[in-house]
Amino acid sequence: MSEQRSDDIRNAVRSSYAAVAEASEAGDCCGVESSCCGVSDDAAINALISTRLGYSQADLESVPEGADMGLGCGNPRAIASLQPGETVLDLGSGGGFDAFLAAAEVGASGRVIGVDMTPEMLAKARANARKGNYSQVEFRLGEIEHLPVSDGSVDVIISNCVINLSPDKAQVFREAFRVLRPGGRLAISDVVAGTELPEAMQQDLQLHSACVSGASTAAELTAILAAAGFADIRIEPKDASREFIRDWVPGSRVEDYVLSATIEAVKPQAGQVKGS
Question: Which of 181, 166, 61, 81 is nearest to 115 (CA)?
């Protein structure tokens, strides 16, 4: 992919999610074209979206109002097995929803870092953290291809429907490998391509921001993760997810091409043979 194309994608994604954050703050609705699942001024609609993705009503009620924006394509925390005292990194943390839920599991002795490249999202997340008094959560401005996080400092990386947006997924996973401690793990919800996308769909920047055009196949992601150094790679597509993906861009048939998946992998311990 050319540098110009990569820049075009990042700029389109940043602009789209800035619009999502601003619309959410204003109580407006900017529609599915601006994000994976759109944003609504109706908390009941956002709650319906999130419960379809695997969150409980208790999850929704435990975070500050406005943190759940109805974004995402799964619940990475459900596969993360978070433990008290762990350090968690949320890639593309948005309004902070998954970061705040992770904070409840790692407790006061743990730490959660959210990274997002959109200043408007970062401002929203920080405001939500103040409202909820999350002293162990911080949000940093940065791109997931160039994480503002030190080497070997993170136990678990979570992410919810964000890595598909990157034009350089190999760099994302190299960075993830760098910041994880040996034995650290990935617990990601994202979209994967079930079949090759039509060329017109691949080139559509609006569909890229809608979590469609940037989807890679499970085989491609497995190869990228292995090349980055990860072991115990498990990618499980969820065929039932096509039901809610259909709502992302109604009438476009995107559900014929992409579906949600869980993506898990481990950074081997020193001396551990990959796959053992």
Answer: 166
